[in-house]
Write a structure and sequence with these properties.
Blueprint lengths: L7 E4 L11 E6 L11 E7 L4 H7 L3 E4 L6 H7 L11 H4 L2
C-alpha cells in the first residue's frame, strides 16, 4: 500500500572502501505539496564529502526540496513505482 502522509524514509550510503557517503531523506507530504513528484520532499545531507566530491558539490551538502539541486533525487526516482515514492522493486521485496 502507499506510504501515508508523514512517512519518512532515510537511506545511508558509503563508498566501496567504507567511507560514509551522503544520507538521503524522503518525507511524504500532503496532497498539494508537489503532486508531480508524488508529494515527496527530498533532502541529501553529506557534511564531509571527500575532497573530489567537495570540489564537484561546492563543499558540504545539504540540498532539499525546493532547491534545484534536490532534483537529483526525484530524477532518479522517476523510473520506479510512484505509489511508494519511487522505490525499486528489489528494495520493496525486503
Amino acid at each position: 500500500e502507499p506510504l501515508p502522509i508523514g512517512s519518512v524514509v532515510v537511506k545511508t550510503s558509503m563508498d566501496p572502501s567504507g567511507v560514509a557517503g551522503p544520507v538521503f531523506v524522503m518525507e511524504k507530504r500532503g496532497p498539494d505539496f508537489n503532486p508531480e513528484e508524488g508529494n515527496w520532499w527530498y533532502a541529501i545531507y553529506w557534511p564531509e564529502p571527500p575532497a573530489e566530491w567537495a570540489a564537484k558539490t561546492g563543499g558540504p551538502v545539504y540540498w532539499r526540496t525546493p532547491s534545484p539541486k534536490a532534483a537529483y533525487c526525484y530524477e532518479c526516482h522517476q523510473g520506479f513505482d510512484r505509489e511508494l515514492g519511487g522505490v525499486p522493486d528489489d528494495v520493496r521485496a525486503w
